[in-house]
Design brief:
The chain has about 190 residues and is an alpha/beta fold. The chain has seven helices and eight strands. The longest helix is centred in the middle third of the chain and has 25 residues.
Length: about 190
């Protein structure tokens, strides 16, 4: 269909932003800011603020447990265990979702800036479609609490999290393979 759709796929290593219409990609942008970089930001924040060394996996667990892109009605907290940089002994600290939001601020801003860049490059005829249909978030990063509201407040457009965002890419690939003839037609045209 000649209708434009904007999808933001926040994976582990990259965030892919694409505008699709008529079965093809009209505009796309890929940045190396995604889940892994957000995890690293959390690790570095805890290291700097609390002098506590934790691993990447713990950073991801913290993101999942209490991470949020916007202020929550009831802030969440988690106890984090790691090694104190000063004493070298094992230690623990209580982190709130406010701490994690602060830690994630820079990578989330980079994703928002990339989204704004794509919106600025959009052809006018497709821009109206995006205003109407909104922006869809997929990938594991879409599960960060309040990310849809965070992005919506910045770009002033409706933003929605896809159903089962972790499976969206796999399901889309499966559907494309079911329509293999149409897929071959589209790839031959390019």
């Amino acid at each position: 269909e000649p209708q434009g759709n904007l999808v933001v796929d926040i994976g582990g290593g990259t965030t892919e932003i694409g505008v699709v219409s008529l079965g093809g990609l009209v505009i796309s942008k890929s940045i190396r800011t995604a889940g892994d970089k957000i995890d690293t930001s959390i690790v570095n924040y805890i290291k700097e603020k609390y002098n506590l060394l934790i691993g990447e996996r713990t950073g991801e667990e913290i993101k999942i447990a209490v991470g949020s892109a916007v202020q929550l009605e009831k802030e969440l907290s988690v106890v984090v265990k790691g090694r104190d940089q000063v004493s070298g002994l094992l230690s623990r600290v209580e982190l709130t979702s406010e701490d994690v939001r602060e830690a994630m601020r820079e990578p989330l801003k980079e994703i928002a800036d990339a989204l704004k860049t794509v919106l600025e490059m959009m052809p006018p005829d497709l821009a109206g479609d995006i205003v109407e249909t909104g922006i869809v978030l997929t990938g594991g990063g879409a599960l960060i609490r309040g990310l849809d509201k965070f992005l919506s407040d910045i770009v002033k457009l409706p933003v929605f999290v896809a159903d089962e965002p972790l499976l969206a890419v796999a399901r889309g690939t499966g559907k494309a393979l079911q329509e293999i003839g149409l897929l071959q037609q589209l790839t031959n045209e390019e």
